[in-house]
Amino acid sequence: MARCVFFSFHYQRDIFRVNTVRNHFLTKGGYSISGYQDRSLWEKAKTSNPLALKRMINRALEGTTVTVVLIGAETADRPWVKYEIEKSLERGNGLLGIYIYNIRHAVTKQTDFKGKNPFDRYAIAQPSPSLHTVDVQRMASNLYPTYDWVLDRGYNNFSMWVEKAAKAAGK
User: Fold this and answer.
1) Rounded to the nearest 10 degrees, what angle do helices 50-61 and 79-91 cross at?
2) Helix ranges restricted to H, the chain
3) What pLDDT digit, counting tens, does each position of 15-49 carry?
4) What is the rounded distance in angstroms from the CA atom of residue 96 to the CA atom of residue 157?
5) What local confidence, expressed as pLDDT, does residue 34 receive?
6) d(CA 95, CA 146)
7) Average pLDDT of 138-163?
8) 76 CB burial (10 A radius; 0-12, 13-18, 19+)
9) What is the model's pLDDT at position 134?
């Protein structure tokens, strides 16, 4: 079953690497065969109006089951990526991160440096195993997996990662 996926990323710096991931369905025979449908904003989000951008993000997240954060060198510090992660957590979407720094840039043919894991910014309350203790706070980076597109063979494994994240979220 093809999952509806929202991709979160730093547009200006990473769009060439991002497109390698987002467009890999083209060489696999389409969305249904590749196991996902892209529900992201693409270039539609070129607005400086914060309220309009929030509405656009919220609409794009509707109907999605998984949010994939494409992690480049500066992704963790981007305010809109933070907003997209927070909204995805509120929705109960499955989450996963994919490092894209090892993907060679389409023009320069260079790789980039590894950015910070954006999930390190979030502590998630989890029910205590005992009725007599308080909820446990766990770092989101310990709850949501991250992969490397190149080293972990994302082209071949992406649909499996998405399915695993959806099931972990109960979707």
Assistant:
1) 40
2) 11-22, 31-34, 50-61, 79-91, 140-143, 154-168
3) 899 989 988 766 656 555 545 655 565 555 556 68
4) 13
5) 47
6) 9
7) 95
8) buried
9) 63
* CATH 3.40.50.450 given to domain 3-168: yes
DSSP per position, 19-39: HHHHTGGGGTTSHHHHTEEE-
- Count CB-CB contacts under 10 A for residue 31: 16
DSSP letter, residue 73:
S
Return phi, psi of residue 127, to 5°: -60, 140
Length of the chain equals: 171
pLDDT at 52 over 50: yes
pLDDT for the residue numbered 2? 76
Cβ neighbours of 50 (radius 10 Å): 11
More confident residue, 112 or 11: 112
Tokens of 72: 């480049």
Q: What pLDDT is attached to residue 6?
A: 93
Residue with tokens 């904003």: 41
